[in-house]
Amino acid sequence: MSSSHDQRAAAHQDAGRIADDLNRMSGLLEEVATVWRRAGLYGPQSSPITPGHLQEAARSLANLLRTLAYADSEQYPALAFSAAEQTEALERDAALCAAVTATGGRRLGDGDIWTAIQDALRQIRKQLWDLSSPAS
User: Fold this and answer.
1) How many CA within 13 A on the CB side of residue 39?
2) For 42-58, b where at least 16 C-beta lie within 10 A, e where not — what string?
3) So what's the pLDDT on residue 136?
4) Across the chain, where does the E strand assignment appear?
5) Residues 6 or more apart in contact with residue 86 via CB below 8 angstroms
6) SS3 of residue 106 by DSSP
């Protein structure tokens, strides 16, 4: 097997691990969504930036990463780049959600969870940028 094939196989394994990380993060978002529901932060006119929406975005991103295993060498960098961009958007939205309960006197006890989510997203974004960069 060629070195290129080995690099691609390793990149696909990395994408699978990142997808698993996103699924774990989705579990953290479920915990925050429960806290928010109990605090009455959800309503009929809820913002599109809520833990539940972030959870859906994380699951969608994990599914995209799983498609990388089937991408050809031309599709792969574009898909990885798209995933990295989606992760940046998810990271921005997570910061906005975290700010909802970090300001204005609404202390729900979810600050540590948001910190873990934001740290995970930063690491995932870095890994995705590495995957989207052509191998040297």
Assistant:
1) 15
2) eeeeeeebbbbbbbebb
3) 44
4) none
5) 57, 60, 61, 64
6) coil
Asked if residue 131 lies in contact with residue 14, where contact means CB atoms within 8 angstroms, the answer is yes
DSSP label at residue 74 = T
> d(Cα 33, Cα 42) in Å, to the nearest integer?
9
Contact (CB, 8 A) for 81 and 132: yes
Cα–Cα distances in angstroms (integers) from residue 73 to residues 9, 14, 68, in the given order:
11, 16, 10
pTM for this structure?
0.83
| CA 8/CA 134 separation, integer angstroms | 11
Q: What share of the chain is helix, strand, coil (3-state, %, to 5)?
A: 80, 0, 20
Which residues, given as ranges, of the chain have pLDDT below 50?
Answer: 136
Report pLDDT for 111: 87
C-alpha to C-alpha distance for 110 and 28, rounded to whole angstroms = 10
Task: For residues 104 and 97, give the distance between their C-alpha atoms in angstroms, rounded to a whole number.
Answer: 13
User: What's the pLDDT score for residue 135?
Assistant: 54
